[in-house]
Design a protein that fits this description.
Elements lengths: L7 H14 L4 H35 L15 H4 L6
């Protein structure tokens, strides 16, 4: 499988591509492929920048607040306050 794009195999693949798409459509196909690759590269760069920015804000963020007490953690007198008559 490593020799698929070497020698006569490459020529056969190119001939099949020309037959499928036609010689007139190949420049447009190459242009759209190049634009897609450029957009993909730009998006990957933006994602890396976003990750770097998130990492910078995470290191300067305040620590999370202490969790609220659950009803089982409170003393019994807080659950049932004394009734006034």
């Amino acid at each position: 499988m490593g020799n698929l794009f070497a020698g006569p195999h490459l020529v056969i693949i190119l001939i099949i591509i020309v037959l499928l798409f036609g010689a007139a459509k190949l420049p447009a196909l190459a242009k759209s492929l190049g634009q897609s690759a450029r957009v993909f590269k730009g998006e990957m760069k933006a994602l890396k920048e976003d990750d770097a920015a998130d990492a910078a804000t995470d290191s300067t963020a305040t620590p999370p607040a202490a969790p609220a007490q659950s009803p089982t953690d409170r003393p019994a007198d807080q659950d049932n306050p004394p009734r006034s008559s």
